[in-house]
Amino acid sequence: MSLASIPFIFSAGQTIIASQHNSNFSTIYNVVNGGLDNSNLSAGAGIVYTKLYLAGQLINTDISPTAAIDGSKLANSGIDLTTKVTGVLPIANGGTGSATASLVGGTAISISGTFPNQTVTSTYTPVSYFTTQYDVHSSRSIGSTYTNSSGVPMIVTATIRTSSNNDTFGILTGTTGGIVFSVYIAGQSTATYQVGTMSLMVPNGNTYQIAMPTGGNSPVIISWVETY
């Protein structure tokens, strides 16, 4: 109810009529006994929390943004995502980050059609290794450095012989990626040429070389095959 007003005000020497006196007390009685409302309370009134009846009265502005409300205190068992939720749900929160759901293509994946009837197609082409052999002996020389620019790993296999049948072959080396591989070919001064074969696995982009730093005189390339 509104603020209580005393209906009868008496002055000194005035005769007090019982009905008027009782009416004043009834006004106060009715306010105190069940008639108090917000208009009767001071803004600084220290009312104990347990005396407050809040059932059905709390609204959004009554709750702090940091209020730790236990889930069991919420009446709704679920949220109506059709009428109660608006806007775009971020990807970090389990959404799509877009108002319209749609699959997006990526590396070696193409998307066609419109959601929800989209088609996913893989455009990935498997890479095949070591499928073709190339005879390059005419363009290769002992001790020269080459680079594997094929785009894939490569196997280099070269067979080398001495230039005459009186040469002692010595050591044949292959180098790739700073790693040196050696094959020692022992030879004698005989009527037979000394022959050695070297194979290297060369990663794409690495340099490679086959050389004979010791022994042998003017070695001859019999074959040089690169496979990738």
Structure description:
This protein has 228 residues and is mostly beta strands. It has three domains: 1-75, no CATH class; 78-125, no CATH class; 133-227, Jelly Rolls (Sandwich). The chain contains one helix and ten strands, in the order H-E-E-E-E-E-E-E-E-E-E. The protein has one helix at 18-32; strands at 109-114, 117-122, 133-135, 145-147, 154-161, 170-176, 179-185, 195-202, 207-214, 220-227. The strands form three sheets. The protein has a four-stranded antiparallel beta sheet with strand order 3-10-5-8, with no helix packed on it. It has a four-stranded antiparallel beta sheet with strand order 4-9-6-7, with no helix packed on it. Strands 1-2 form a two-stranded antiparallel sheet. A hairpin with a 2-residue loop joins strand 6 (170-176) and strand 7. 10% of the residues are buried. The mean pLDDT is 80.
Secondary structure topology:
Blueprint lengths: L17 H15 L76 E6 L2 E6 L10 E3 L9 E3 L6 E8 L8 E7 L2 E7 L9 E8 L4 E8 L5 E8 L1
Antiparallel strand pairs: 1-2, 3-10, 4-9, 5-8, 5-10, 6-7, 6-9
